[in-house]
Amino acid sequence: MKMISSGLKKLFFVSVGLAFLFPLFWMITLSLKSKSEVYANPFGLPQEWLFSNYTEVLTKYDFFKYFKNSLIYTGGTIIITLLLGSMLAYCLSRMNWKGNKYTINYIAMGLIIPVEVVMIPLYMFIGQMGIKETYWGLILPYSAFSLASCVLMLYAFLRSLPRELEEASCIDGCNIYRCFFRIILPNIKPALYIQSILIFMRIWNEFVLAFIVAGPDNLRPLSVGLMSFFVSIGVSHWGLIGAAMIITSIPTIIAYLIANEQIENSLTASAMLK
Fold first, then answer.
1. What residues contact 74, with CB distance under 8 A and at least 6 apart?
2. Is residue 38 part of a domain?
3. How many domains does the chain have?
4. 269: domain CATH number?
5. 228 vs 232: CA distance, rounded Å
6. Is residue 241, in this structure, part of any structural domain at all?
7. For residue 273, what pLDDT band results from cuts at 50, 70 and 90?
8. Which residue did the predictor score with more confidence, 3 or 47?
9. How many CA atoms lie within 13 A of 176 on its CB side?
10. Residue 169 placed within a domain
11. Full residue range of the structural domain in which residue 204 is found
12. For residue 48, what is the DSSP state?
């Protein structure tokens, strides 16, 4: 009976895994089909493997320009969010000061406010700051919206660290800044890894704010540039659309493959800290 139960569980998880992998498989096969075969054979393997779809996409779609922009937005957001978020989480979790609890509640409210609610005042504020049509016009809002989840997660990690770390560093002559950067940050690397991956996945695929704020074509990220490419070729050539989607998804797939091991290690480390 146990063997049957174990076999059914394995069959269930394999089926779920294949169901999640099927969209990726379908997108890959779609990218290798001709315009006519997509409609005649939408889900089967290509009869003729057209790798020329990829070269045609790279010719018509300025992938590297949009890739550079997405890399700048994502990298800038990760650096700013982790630096400011870790410092604020440290203040909230390791220092006693008036208004500590109220600040945590205020930060938690950032998780329930969608971007669409503040889109108009945010757009006006960006214009008044003079950073409209610059990289900072997206990096700063992205960082602001990422801070809430970053602070709350790092806050939980920091609370699990023993107080003796700071006491020992003070005895050795460290001030608060050296203690934070040399003692505390290395001990919360698992949480920083998780946040880096989560921020990357979210910012790399973000569309709404980028579409409204990015402005000129030379500042648009991959998500917005992909939409412009679809509009330029129309929705009839699904082979090119599939190839473009595969090319723009490669960084996300790589980040996902890295995230599997990193998240597992991070969860194990957090359990050991507790």
1. 199, 200, 203, 204
2. no
3. 1
4. 1.10.3720.10
5. 6
6. yes
7. very low
8. 47
9. 5
10. yes
11. 52-273
12. S
